[in-house]
Amino acid sequence: ELRVQSYPGAIDDLRGHPYVITQKLDGCSGTYWRVSDTEYGLASRNLALKPTGDSFWHRVAADLSIFDRIPPGAAVQGEVVGPQIQKNPLGLPSLAFYVFSVWDISMRCFLGAEDAQEFCRQHQLPHVPVLYAGPKFDYSLGDLLALSKGKYASGRHQEGIVVRSATEMYSPALKGRMSFKVINNDYLLKGGGD
User: What is the C-alpha separation between 184 and 170, in angstroms, rounded?
Assistant: First the structure.
């Protein structure tokens, strides 16, 4: 995600449009896809991984039966969180995975934020926590910085928030999809979630 502090024009691009704000989870991103009943794969943020292995991305896929839940023609991106990942700021007892984006492989497009939530409900995949949503975005940068503050259930500072249009739209300021992050300054000052 691009950081809104570097692209403040995105705020004006979204103004007046339906929006969804989710909690930014502090972990490692992962992508899981299924092209057909026999063709599937996974990747870390920067690297395609072999279908089998013992990384935490593989363990989450097995524990949650992710490839059984993703229908052919879809890919999910999300955050792998829990023990041994970024000092486990969420304080989770075991690894977990939360979807933040869904890609339609055949249409070559992301689902909008609302459609991605519905996709997760239908396929019993956990979605990142939705903090706020509404029909007309009308926040300032100061408002968003205030909303980014908060703590995980563990009591540690949350990393921040992610702001998206409820349905997919283009942002001239971002030169791409309307989606940006706002990092919690308390998180930055404390050197992470501590």
Answer: 25
